[in-house]
């Protein structure tokens, strides 16, 4: 969970509809032992074949020419069957379930971290988290199922259906489409942890006959994708990936490859997690991975700050609708951004420690750029994994510096400074923040940065939002087990 320059000719930037504007070994990886030597775009435009529902708000603006890179940029994919675009987004977050509200809160630098009241946490050494409150499933889950479901699956269903609606793929539209070519790939690191904990408690206190029949189905990690498909009738590729906090990016990478191979026209992909409960918080306390700043929880998540003391738990879900460009054009979809590529690697080193040489992470970043067919010089924004742990934060920065020899034009921020670490959902929530940075031209700040580590020489957008025209962005996610994942997004250009 903690392991972990730009060129284009003047052209037109295409965005989205205006309605969206504005123990021991565990402790080492968990932040207690540092690694040595680590150092406003206008909303939518209308193209032939691309239809917006907010025509009165449509306008366009030229992209500023960027300095030429030191090497020639690779030629990007041109085949519309293999180009993967983002046509919808949905989330559940500590800031609510509306995309614009979520991003505006991030731009304002507001912390969503607070004291836990979901369970009695007064005796816990960590008593705060990015706990979601006032969550509503109205219109998305019927009452009977809503009462039975683990929050992990409730978050998944709401975020997934919101993403489908955002992509103009509501129930009526889906009825006329080939559902065998629409897949679901929403992963989770922990699965239905509340359902699992309740089942174990029933077994111990009352015996096996008192275990609910939903114990297994609502605990296993594949159920988010399964339930979403059952509700929507989507019959394409369907499974779950569980690679701890790298999960969502793994799902984006795999989903894009299903599209590129022609196995699906559309993939509903992302991550979901609901571990802010006694077992989840207690487990990470046992790992010694969490910040213990109970007296000031809003200042507890402080990536790259010298006084950081561990990550802050979060929860939620982040889902993207990924679609082949050809299919999006045929149905007149509004295109938000483009997925250019990604990569997944393994440190092959330790369950929780990052490699001291950063090889797994740096190779993952380099391979993602190769897959995306972009040069390092084209990248000018990084949404970092940056969990606020001693070892992980600097290991990631060191790996970034190994790939990007000149970081003077790169901006890098940490979404987790405000929403905490969403574990398997983190990559999904951060992908949405990355895409919003692309479409709005504004980067959210990294908050609580009062005493920056001297080795962090990249602009981390401290404390105040910053206007920045994103050319190519990468979003990093790394997880226990040495799982590394990086995905690459860019503004869509025909």
TrEMBL record:
<comment type="function">
    <text>Catalyzes the condensation reaction of fatty acid synthesis by the addition to an acyl acceptor of two carbons from malonyl-ACP.</text>
</comment>
<keyword id="KW-0444">Lipid biosynthesis</keyword>
<feature type="domain" description="Ketosynthase family 3 (KS3)">
    <location>
        <begin position="81"/>
        <end position="491"/>
    </location>
</feature>
<protein>
    <recommendedName>
        <fullName>3-oxoacyl-[acyl-carrier-protein] synthase I, chloroplastic</fullName>
        <ecNumber>2.3.1.41</ecNumber>
    </recommendedName>
</protein>
<dbReference type="InterPro" id="IPR016039">
    <property type="entry name" value="Thiolase-like"/>
</dbReference>
<keyword id="KW-0809">Transit peptide</keyword>
<dbReference type="InterPro" id="IPR014030">
    <property type="entry name" value="Ketoacyl_synth_N"/>
</dbReference>
<keyword id="KW-0150">Chloroplast</keyword>
<keyword id="KW-0443">Lipid metabolism</keyword>
<keyword id="KW-0808">Transferase</keyword>
<dbReference type="GO" id="GO:0004315">
    <property type="term" value="F:3-oxoacyl-[acyl-carrier-protein] synthase activity"/>
</dbReference>
<keyword id="KW-0275">Fatty acid biosynthesis</keyword>
<dbReference type="Pfam" id="PF02801">
    <property type="entry name" value="Ketoacyl-synt_C"/>
</dbReference>
<dbReference type="InterPro" id="IPR017568">
    <property type="entry name" value="3-oxoacyl-ACP_synth-2"/>
</dbReference>
<dbReference type="InterPro" id="IPR000794">
    <property type="entry name" value="Beta-ketoacyl_synthase"/>
</dbReference>
<comment type="similarity">
    <text>Belongs to the thiolase-like superfamily. Beta-ketoacyl-ACP synthases family.</text>
</comment>
<dbReference type="Pfam" id="PF00109">
    <property type="entry name" value="ketoacyl-synt"/>
</dbReference>
<dbReference type="InterPro" id="IPR014031">
    <property type="entry name" value="Ketoacyl_synth_C"/>
</dbReference>
<dbReference type="InterPro" id="IPR020841">
    <property type="entry name" value="PKS_Beta-ketoAc_synthase_dom"/>
</dbReference>
<keyword id="KW-0276">Fatty acid metabolism</keyword>
<dbReference type="GO" id="GO:0006633">
    <property type="term" value="P:fatty acid biosynthetic process"/>
</dbReference>
<dbReference type="GO" id="GO:0009507">
    <property type="term" value="C:chloroplast"/>
</dbReference>
<keyword id="KW-0934">Plastid</keyword>
<dbReference type="GO" id="GO:0005739">
    <property type="term" value="C:mitochondrion"/>
</dbReference>
<comment type="subunit">
    <text>Homodimer.</text>
</comment>
<dbReference type="InterPro" id="IPR018201">
    <property type="entry name" value="Ketoacyl_synth_AS"/>
</dbReference>
<keyword id="KW-0012">Acyltransferase</keyword>
